[in-house]
Design goal:
CATH architecture: 3-Layer(aba) Sandwich
Radius of gyration: 16 Å
Number of domains: 1
Oligomer: single chain
Strand order of the largest sheet: 1-7-8-6-5-2-3-4
Bound molecules: S-adenosylmethionine
Order of helices and strands: EHHHHEHEHEEHEHHEE
CATH class: Alpha Beta
Length: 238
């Protein structure tokens, strides 16, 4: 896996995607064509119960496991309070559990996706997630300052979903030294200012120890060659 210095790295583009359709064949085209949080709420309400049986298993969706691995590669035992943002049905939490990681809280816009995450248990039958929080990453979060030692995410920073603006609130809820491992669609990363913002945040000392990985998202299907950026760094609290 390639690891590069975040502050000095540029990533090549990917093509855009089209329009919504119906029920059980919901996939990337519908997800990428969303525009507002309300669009997201509506789509994921419809998608929650078929998301894993359809999209995840048909495409061998391994991105959440890549994020969990990136987090665990750098986490120390102090990283106990972890927040999975845009946790959906809870696949990053499953990845953390498989790697012996902490039990995260999950935050998502969609109560129906959170319901699915709430049903997940580990091999001992314990819940994968702690608190499950309905929240909109494009707005203020009802979470205290410095509440989390770790922030993880897969599939949420992508076309039609959440942009770089969410990081103001994420830095606020992160404790000093908190470890971020956040997956970002590689097109979205360049087009929506992630690269510039992280570079500025490095330069100003707002974040430190930056790394990026380019990771596979799928093991099968027509998007098997797609890659995402996993940006990991520490929040300095400055
Ligand atoms: C593609 S799913 C990824 C879910 C999970 N992390 C995974 O990798 O399977 C994107 C998730 O982002 C959530 N989401 C979209 N917009 C959001 C927002 N503004 N605030 C919080 N969550 C949002 C959706 O509800 C959905 O659960």
């Amino acid at each position: 896996m390639t690891e590069l210095q975040l502050c000095s790295t540029m990533v090549e583009d990917e093509p855009d995607a089209p329009e919504p359709v119906a029920e059980s064949h919901i996939g990337l085209d519908e997800a990428y064509s969303l525009k507002t949080p309300e669009d997201n709420r509506r789509l994921y309400k419809k998608w929650a119960t078929s998301y894993e049986a359809g999209f995840v298993s048909e495409n061998g969706y391994i991105y959440p496991l890549q994020v969990a691995a990136a987090f665990m590669d750098r986490a120390d035992s102090a990283a106990r309070r972890v927040l999975d943002i845009g946790c959906g049905t809870g696949l990053v939490g499953v990845g953390l559990a498989e790697l012996g990681g902490p039990r995260p809280d999950g935050l998502d816009l969609s109560p129906e996706m959170l319901d699915e995450a709430g049903r997940k248990t580990d091999s001992q039958g314990r819940p994968i997630y702690g608190d499950l929080i309905v929240g909109d990453l494009t707005a203020s979060l009802s979470l205290p300052d410095g509440a989390y030692d770790g922030i993880v995410s897969a599939g949420t920073f992508t076309h039609g979903h959440v942009g770089i603006g969410a990081f103001d609130e994420l830095y606020r809820v992160a404790a000093d030294g908190a470890l971020f491992a956040v997956g970002i669609n590689s097109d979205h990363y360049e087009e929506r200012g992630f690269s510039e913002r992280f570079r500025d945040d490095c330069d100003s000392g707002r974040i430190s120890e930056p790394e990026i990985r380019r990771v596979p998202i799928f093991e099968a299907g027509e998007h098997v060659d797609d890659r995402a950026i996993v940006a990991s760094f520490r929040s300095t609290g400055r």
